[in-house]
């Protein structure tokens, strides 16, 4: 860099430095007023920013509370459709009981009515993915069956279910009630 360029650079630096000094020079008449206005503007912006932060926090908390309430309501009333369908089965059972209390050939009518209600109940359960666990004649599986006893049986091989005391059910693929079974110990010796 030549001397002339260096001198020009120094002159520019000096001019810039003087402008900066003039802008913040406390001896200037405009400076205190400008500084006070600037401080007030910054205070206002800070207050507005604080207000926005508080509003955002309040909105977030309200959203969390609303989501928690909605989740609790969904959990509380999740079985509503199932209950409505089961109430129809309940109504039909009451009709069957009324029919049984009447006179005449009510035994066969009652049997037919109860069979229809049992089928309706099975259909409602299937609608909600509740299926019966097959047990009779099956190999004993502790994941699906609960052995209540073991008895010898000449007709059923050892380790297989010879009698089902209570049917078990699955919801989708999860066992919600295991089948209570009697397991064969094979032929008596």
TrEMBL record:
Biased composition (Basic and acidic residues) is annotated at: 32-50
Segments for region (Disordered): 18-50
Q: Does the keyword DNA repair apply?
A: no
GO MF entries: adenyl-nucleotide exchange factor activity; protein homodimerization activity; protein-folding chaperone binding; unfolded protein binding
Q: Which Pfam families would you find in this protein's record?
A: GrpE (PF01025)
Write out the GO biological process terms: protein folding
A GO cellular component annotated for this chain's UniProt record is: cytoplasm
Q: Does the keyword Chaperone apply?
A: yes
User: Where found?
Assistant: Cytoplasm
Highest taxon in the source lineage: Bacteria
Quote the InterPro entries the UniProt record gives. GrpE (IPR000740), GrpE_CC (IPR013805), GrpE_head (IPR009012)
Task: Indicate where this protein is primarily found.
Answer: cytoplasm
Q: Which UniProt keywords apply?
A: Chaperone, Cytoplasm, Stress response
| Known role | Participates actively in the response to hyperosmotic and heat shock by preventing the aggregation of stress-denatured proteins, in association with DnaK and GrpE. It is the nucleotide exchange factor for DnaK and may function as a thermosensor. Unfolded proteins bind initially to DnaJ; upon interaction with the DnaJ-bound protein, DnaK hydrolyzes its bound ATP, resulting in the formation of a stable complex. GrpE releases ADP from DnaK; ATP binding to DnaK triggers the release of the substrate protein, thus completing the reaction cycle.
What does the record note on quaternary structure? Homodimer.
Q: Which family does it belong to?
A: Belongs to the GrpE family.
Protein's UniProt name: Protein GrpE
Name the gene for this chain: grpE
């Amino acid at each position: 860099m030549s001397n002339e360029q260096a001198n020009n650079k120094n002159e520019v630096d000096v001019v810039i430095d003087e402008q900066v000094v003039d802008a913040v020079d406390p001896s200037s008449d405009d400076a205190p007023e400008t500084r006070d206005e600037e401080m007030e503007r910054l205070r206002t912006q800070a207050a507005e920013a604080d207000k926005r932060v508080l509003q955002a926090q309040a909105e977030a908390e309200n959203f969390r509370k609303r989501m928690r309430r909605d989740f609790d309501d969904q959990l509380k009333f999740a079985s509503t459709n199932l209950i409505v369908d089961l109430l129809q089965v309940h109504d039909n059972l009451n009709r069957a009981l009324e029919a049984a209390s009447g006179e005449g050939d009510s035994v066969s009518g009652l049997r037919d009515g109860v069979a229809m209600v049992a089928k309706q109940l099975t259909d409602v359960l299937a609608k909600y993915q509740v299926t019966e666990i097959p047990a009779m004649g099956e190999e004993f599986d502790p994941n699906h069956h609960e052995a209540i006893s073991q008895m010898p049986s000449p007709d059923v091989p050892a380790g297989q279910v010879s009698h089902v005391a209570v049917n078990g059910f699955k919801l989708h693929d999860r066992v919600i009630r295991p089948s209570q079974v009697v397991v064969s110990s094979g032929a008596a010796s």
